[in-house]
Amino acid sequence: MIKQQNMMIVSHQSIAEDVYELTLQGSLVRHMSSPGQFVHVKVTAGSDPLLRRPISICSIDPLLEQFTMLYRVSGGGTKVLSNLVKGSEINVMGPLGSGFPVDELREGEKALLIGGGIGVPPLFELSKRLKTKGVKVTHVLGFQQQSAVFYKHEFEQLGETYIATADGSEGTKGFVTDVIKDHSFEPDAYFTCGPTPMLKAVENMLDHTPGFISMEQRMGCGIGACLACVCHVQGDDTGLLYKKVCSDGPVFRSGEVVL
Q1: Which helix (H) or strand (E) holds 203?
Q2: Helix and strand tally (H, E) in the chain?
Q3: pTM, whole model, 2 decimals?
């Protein structure tokens, strides 16, 4: 159920290079149930910037009615957002989209969670849910360099965690696929979120394993009306069939859409 509410900032801090952790409080949290969903944030009370910013839900605390999201400052809107302080309010719409299917795995089975950059945050709540079910979770997280690494220790508390950096300043030098090549994980299912080239490489590498991908896409409305975030369906020769990332996704079964 999509709701809209002014939520109070209870914590806001920088946790890595250009990456911020923002925790909000409000009754809207009662409707957040699926890891991998996102919210649409209005960063100012006025009309500039006009469009909301889609940000994935990182962690949910229903008892405190709080949720946490991590975001990267990459433009004017997120720059404004980064300057907001504890005690102020921002308007949030959500939860939006479809999340990861936690019930895909049973107790004792193994899950491989693969994230790249700002695609890492939605995997955190997923990992918590899977561990609670008794699923063994392993994380492979990719970043550009050491200064961009975040939530390493938080993920380590949940399961085995591997870091890859493009410049080799921490963990394995290279990409998440290099870590996967070097280890025999043999998961019962994988879950991944990050830039499209990474998703495509992971999907190709783990093509015999059931998997779920969460796509990063520019969005306008966030509810499937503007068609700004469409992606084509795999196997459609006409080029006419498509899915809307904001409402049909952002999570899709591996092989469902064209990457």
Answers
A1: helix 196-205
A2: 5, 16
A3: 0.94
> Do the Cβ atoms of 88 and 43 come closer than 8 Å?
no
At residue 77, the 3 state secondary structure works out as helix
Point out the domain boundary residue: 36, 68, 96.
Answer: 96
Give the separation between CA 186 and CA 183, rounded to whole angstroms: 9
Instruction: Give residue-wise pLDDT tens across range 57-70.
Output: 999 999 999 999 99
Helix or strand run (H / E) with residue 13: strand 3-16
Q: Of the candidates 3, 241, 36, which has an alpha carbon nearest to the alpha carbon of residue 129?
A: 36
> How many structural domains are present in the chain?
3
Q: What is the pLDDT of residues 203-259, one digit of tens each?
A: 999 999 999 999 877 766 777 777 778 888 887 777 778 888 888 879 999 999 888
**Cα distance between residue 165 and residue 238, in whole Å:** 39
Cα–Cα distances in Å, from 100 out to 57, 121, 178, 212? 12, 13, 24, 7
Q: What angle do CA 116, 229, 180 make, to 5 degrees?
A: 20
Cross-strand partners of 244: 230
Domain limits for position 17: 3-96
Structure tokens at 28: 């809207």
